[in-house]
Amino acid sequence: MTSAGRYPPSLSRHSTPKVSFLVALDAGSDLFWVPCDCVQCAPLSASYYSSLDKDLNEYSPFVSSTSQSISCGHQLCELGSNCPSPGQQCPYTIDYYSPNTSTSGFLVEDILHLISTHSDASTKFVRAPVIFGCGNKQTGGYLSGVAPDGLLGLGLGEISVPSILAKSGYIRNSFSLCFSEDDSGKLFFGDMGLADQQTTPFLPLDGKNLTYIVGVDDCCIGSSCLNLMNFEMLVDTGSSFTFIPDQIYKKVADEFDRQLNASKASFPGYPWQYCYESSSQEMPKIPTLTLKFATSSGFIVSNPVLMIYGTKGAVGFCLAIQPTQENIGTIGQNFMTGYQIVFDRENFKLGWLRSNCQDLDYEDGAPLNSSGNSNSPNSLPTTAQQGGANGRAVAPAVAGRTPSKSSASCLSGLVNLFLFLIAHIS
Q1: Using one digit for the tens of pLDDT, what is the confidence trace for 327-339?
Q2: What is the average pLDDT value for the chain, to the nearest integer?
Q3: How far, in Å, CA of 421 to CA of 238, rounded?
Q4: Residue 265, helix vs strand vs coil
Q5: Do residues 64 and 13 lie in contact, with contact meaning Cβ atoms separated by under 8 Å?
Q6: Would the pTM of this model clear 0.70, i.e. be above it?
């Protein structure tokens, strides 16, 4: 199995051709899984998806010479106590919060090939064993276009790829994602961010560091702050859009509406409540939205709307926030555009800095940590243990072109607007 450098990550066995996988990246869950020896999986034909130019594939441990079975006695086998004997192969089942959505199969280990090119043009290859799910049965959203070729969980659980890489000493315990305005982006394993970034601490959930939650002190629309009570939000790359608890949402949306000089409109089929008429030629000034944290000057969202297009171009836009009945909101990917977002798991804090993403080449950074062994507008479902009732589906998408320069300090991979990453198995 191979992954992440400025080149497409790949899972490889030299004796057979590479097999590509298009996996979604999700900070709201832990397990990395791919369709594998399928009993019930999503369609893998390119003709089923409007954005694909080639068929998707499934993994088979019998084809990879480096694949190893994970037994029920392994420390990362959560269902091990249900096995008849410790030596049997470890099964897994993950139920997601979205209705009837799950993945199940068994755990395997294979080699993740990490690539980093240094500023002196030398290239370092690291072979890192990782554990992932051989998903032979998916249900719900995973059968209708949500991550049909697998999902890379980036959560805090011990089984997530960042956790495994950090524990083995291959990377610092951190990663960053950057989303540019042109629907492209980058992923860097081991990135701690830059000195001038703003930060706010992650908060524990029920006394435990289970996921990426931040505390919001207030919301501001333009220069008008609403003097809200503190509330919490999950930072979730797997959610395309942002959700705010009901009562707070109403105050934010009403203030946005008050400041906007535009006629309200209704667009059937879209979930947003505050929509407006406009065109590409006549676009009103959109007020910014700022999430204020106690430890920073604020997280500014310059364009918190989604354009609505008809057959002849733009016909309107909507405030791209939805209310939720949950106590915890969600900062979705649309609020992260134009930022380098750092998930600093080592210091348990979120970092952010304005970026066009093309400048993140890290040519002057330190080499990789070598202490490890060298050998449609919707969202990804969130796990029932970690998420709220906000998850919906994303259509598959293809990663952007590989840039010409590579990271010297981090392990990096390409992502697009919906956080999809190409991997190869052979």
Answers
A1: 999 999 889 988 9
A2: 78
A3: 13
A4: strand
A5: yes
A6: yes
Note whether 136 and 38 are within 8 A (CB): yes
Cβ-contact 402, 415 below 8 angstroms: no
Per-block mean pLDDT, blocks of 10 residues, the chain (426 long) = 35 45 84 94 89 85 89 95 93 87 94 64 73 95 87 93 92 88 74 92 89 94 90 90 93 95 90 88 89 88 90 90 94 90 96 82 38 40 41 30 28 35 40
Instruction: Dig out the tokens for 325 from the structure.
Output: 């009945």
CB-based contact 112:129 (threshold 8 Å): yes
The per-residue b/e assignment along 190-217, b for 16 or more CB within 10 angstroms, e otherwise, is: bbbbeeebbbbbbeebeeeebbbbbebb
Summarize pLDDT for 178-222 with one digit per residue, the tens: 877 765 667 888 889 889 999 999 999 888 888 999 999 999 999
Q: Which residues contact 121 (CB under 8 A, 6 or more apart)?
A: none
- Helices marked H in 199-345 — which ranges? 246-259
Catalytic residue numbers, as ranges: 26, 236
Q: What is the DSSP letter of 411?
A: E
CB 231 within 8 A of CB 247: no
Q: Which two tokens stand for residue 382?
A: 């969130």
**CB-based contacts of 261: which residues, under 8 Å, 6+ apart?**
284, 285
CB under 8 Å to 339, separation ≥6 — which residues? 178, 179, 352, 353, 354, 355
- Chain-centroid distance, C-alpha 171: 19
In 3D space, the residue among 177, 82, 99 whose CA is nearest the CA of residue 142 turns out to be 99
DSSP 236-247: -TT-SSEEEEHH
pLDDT in tens, 355-409: 887 766 544 333 333 333 333 334 455 444 333 333 332 333 322 222 222 222 3
Which residues, 6+ apart, have CB-to-CB distance to 88 below 8 Å?
Answer: 71, 72
What's residue 380's pLDDT?
53
Please tell me the predicted confidence (pLDDT) of residue 333.
85
Question: Which has the closest alpha carbon to 159: 213, 240, 102, 80?
Answer: 80
Enter the tokens of residue 12: 């490889």
Q: How many CB atoms lie within 10 A of CB 288?
A: 14
CA distances from 407 to 11, 154, 403 (A): 20, 20, 10
Gap between the Cα atoms of 143 and 336, Å rounded: 28
Residue 195 makes CB contacts below 8 A (sequence gap 6+) with none
